[in-house]
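Hi C.,

You asked whether I'd gotten around to modeling the 242-residue construct. I have! Everything is below, sequence then structure, no commentary in between.
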Amino acid sequence: MSAPAPTINPLEAAHFGKLAAEWWDPKGSSAMLHRLNPVRLAYLRTRLDQAWDLDPRALRPLAGKRALDVGCGAGLLSEPLARLGAQVTGIDAAPENVDVARAHAAEQGLTIDYRSGEVEQLSGERFDLVVSMEVIEHVADPAGFIAALGSALADDGLLIMSTPNRTPLSRLALITIGEGFGMVPRGTHDHDKFLTPDELTKLLEDAGFEVIDTSGLSFDPRKGFVLSSDLTLNYLLTARRR
């Protein structure tokens, strides 16, 4: 059997690698991700508690679980998953990000298996939880990427993703305003590569998944980013094998 085609877009990897040094600065080029992270974590905790019947009061509910963070950057999501008790592997296409992630985890006293490369290289490894946040819109082959995520997922595991919707609002918020006013580094987004919820659901179904939840991630001027039923800007999605 031939090896799967790589899904990494080298230009995208290089773009994010240049931002590595500022990844943990809440006021730097990754400031938007710092604002998004609490909402992502709240979504993750709710979905995992429900799917695995976890105690919502437990401090380390993921003890004994293996988690894979695909497109982990410098570890903004990997580290909270480790603190929740998971045995975490983080993989990113930019070696610069992985170097920063390893150094930061060591400073925090966290043991996380960070790797540089693409998810396709995890041949034979299986994880109870696979997360990939704001990544699929940057890959060269979305269908191939989802197939690779599926190969890494245990039979009874959960896949959780987030991505911008392809709408006029996402173009305005993320590119015209976000990149135009310096809140997001220029060149981060290509609106044509954004996937609608229907498109992503279809890709997942074609790969043998069942989508069990889709929730919106929207912006409230009073509260900042919040979970909602509005999928227009950005959305999170949970899937499992059929």
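If it helps when you're writing up: The two ends are 25 Å apart (CA to CA).

Thanks,
B.
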